Amino acid sequence: MENILGRVLPDYIEGYGEVKPFSGAFSNLGVKGKSQVFVKCVSPRDVKLLNSIREALEKCEIKDGMTVSFHHHLRNGDYVLNMVMDEIANMGIKDIKVAASSIFPVHAPLVEHIKNGVVTGIYANYMSGPVAEAVSKGLLKYPAIMHTHGGRARAIESGDLKIDIAFIAAPTCDEYGNINGVYGPSACGSLGYAIPDAMYAKRVVAITDNLVSYPACPIEISQEYVDFIVKVDSIGDPKGIVSGTTKITKDPVGLKIAKMAAQVIEASGLLKDGFSFQTGAGGISLAVAKYVRDLMKNKGIKGSFAAGGITGYIVDMFEEGLFEALFDVQCFDLKAVESYRRNVAHQGMSASLYGNPHNKGAVVNRLDVMILGATEIDLDFNVNVTTGSDGIIMGGSGGHSDTAAGSKLAIVVTKLLKGRLPIVVDKVTTVTTPGETIDVVVTERGIAVNPKRQDLIEKLKNTNLPIMTIEELKSIAEKMVGVPEKIEFDDKIVAVVEYRDGTVIDVVKKVKE
Predict the structure, then answer these.
(1) Where is the signal peptide (predicted)?
(2) How would residue 246 be classed by pLDDT, with cut points 50, 70 and 90?
């Protein structure tokens, strides 16, 4: 069958189940139910603090075929996933499904667990490094399931993703299970992605390297959700939080793109008092924030909030009074961690509050402008941030699809060519975010506006910006470097890409060797 984007999908996928095809960004809303919460009662004399991860696994009655979950706030500095999975392997447990909000190069030891059958399934919002390569090569028994950040929370809350044991990397924890991310040697800030796991998993184990006296303050995840606590030497290296670019680009081409994007925002009419904004941590995206900052200062504009994974640059804008508040689901650098610790209006938010389409209102619905990246964009404005030019998984939606759907103006900023390959193509290799939720594509050669945004096209006519069609952008790129050869794929499905509502927007197939 085909979904609404023309992506050919099977009716049923082994290891995934029945396929519900994507039918539009807002077609699967309405009244939704939540999964029943599992509660194991604790008596006043019960002790939660255990001696080892192995003891915690035994107390949680780990068995073959279970699903265990992890969060990624320590990003490429995380030690917890590897520690837990090594112990599971040592116990001889097999057929484990790993539900990690994201997987990074530091999690390379997972590849060996995939090869020997300890791990047969993966759920993730983002994957990069050796694990992503192993999945792409078909080493995982069942297809990986790729969620959005909000979609993962939705899946957990609805019961689509049932977690047997959630492991929470807790920078600070007391002996009764109260957790925060702002103190301790591994402080990482907001713990937004761990909150749905803590609330809905059958068992919850906090792994901490900073055990404090009761009660831990402040409390982000409370004792009522935590079954056991294990003290270890270290849960991770907070320097690994800063994985990837978190500084403004100095590249003249990147700066040109960013300046034009800021001009689009200004022309849209959204840049006024009460303005709300989110940008990623990439160099061009942060440069957009710089130009927006300058415009807000020059015009005396005070925004309502900035949101998302918060960087030090967004903290600077907040502390200058350009925004009244920050909504933070994860801290992208240590300056953001420090701000989250001391600024009352720098608020944490759960993954569900951030982007779940099946609750009573996600923060993304209140965004005016979102700045997005892209690996590929096609003539229908569909965006790929899941697979690279070689067809190998190198990322995933994260909050891309959630924010594109929620914001009033979703802008993709990208160079027209990357590695001598055109970014604009006939059809993207993998659809991550549907074109109906993308409004503008800004490149150094020109700006394309989605034809559905005739209102914006009219406003931009009054500027000196180089407005053109997406087809014209594609033609310019191909005149420069030609048309790239198409990647050939096997029939084997290695990953299922779910839209935020749980429908299947695309699949990733194994690249032919």
Answers:
(1) none
(2) low
